[in-house]
Amino acid sequence: MSGKIRLGKTRDSRTRKQEVKAVNVAEAENLLQELKNQKEFTRYLLLKGYSTSTTKRYVKDAEVLIKWAEKENVQIEQVSYSDVLHYIQGKRNHVKQRTVSTNVNSIKHYFNFLALTDQRLENPTTQIQIKGVKRKMLYDILSKQELESLFNNFEIPGENSKDKNQNWFKTSLLASERNKVILGLMIYQGLGTTELGRLTEKDLKLREGKIFIAGTRRSNERELKLEAHQVLDIMEYTLKTRQEILNLKKNNSQSDSLFVSVGESYQFRSIINKLIKKLNKQSSKVTSVLQIRTSVITHWLKIHNLRQVQHMAGHRYVSSTEAYFVNDLDDLQEDIGKFHPIG
């Protein structure tokens, strides 16, 4: 073999901002020779698009785990969740948290490889998160009941309102009807601000009771099921409310967007900011769309498997979904003591 080959993702992959670097074939062959005891795992990583230096680190970390398992008289194919916790706990006394996190990431790849090649049924590291390493901000998770309450108690002015003759009442009513539809998509489909702002009427499949969410560079496209009461609300919005909002505006430049503004601003974020302020008055715990989305995904993980939630959330990588697990090693000290008592 000579020259260079392209491994992993293509240059057209939407998940990359820059062109994928080609891997030198000679370097890859040298690495396969150097790591000949783990040749298949090495080839797996190279084909995933990892650099030779990253591949080498992952393989070396995996080899350390294998030696540890041999010392513990445990076959690597039989290593359990509690075994991994015990292994990591031993490292925490000697290295920094960042190093532990890097090591956990390495062995996650190794167990993924073993599962993919049918050498074991599952990856025991899936739910492990390392506390003390900077990662996504944690939010005050809203309970399922609190989320439902936000939707069910969302106030829409009635025809008998004492303000119905005020000039502003009509626009306030239309905005509230629109915002309840938006809120439903946040709570039941876990949509974020960007996804909501990109929706068009063509994305609705009301006869099928579904909605299509277009993919972006950072997210996958998907089709999600709508709740029955959402279908009725969305139908009323698209057939009546939305058109009335457009009729109020002199410039219909928003006509392609599903959600249009009743005010002067054409920025969808302006709609969201006003909605969050109203929700905060309804419940002081509500702080942002991201908090609501985080709460929804967290609850999904309790009733659906990881891959299902990855699809529903539109995550490109399963690691993004795993970040929503609330487990950490400090909270698992009791389990470690139970499975690996000292003395």
Give a written overview of the molecule.
By secondary structure, the protein is mostly helical. The protein folds into two domains: 138 residues, Tyrosine recombinase, N-terminal domain (DNA polymerase, domain 1); 179 residues, Intergrase catalytic core (hpI Integrase, Chain A), CATH 1.10.443.10. Helix content is 52%, strand content 4%. The protein contains 14 helices and five strands. Strands 3-4-5 form a three-stranded antiparallel beta sheet, with no helix packed on it. Helix 2 packs antiparallel against helix 3 and helix 7 runs antiparallel to helix 9. The longest helix has 21 residues.
Compact description:
This protein is mainly α.
Number of helices: 14
**Helix residue percentage:** 40-55%
Overall pLDDT: 80
How widely separated are the two ends? 56 Å
Describe the strand arrangement of the main beta sheet, using strand numbers.
3-4-5
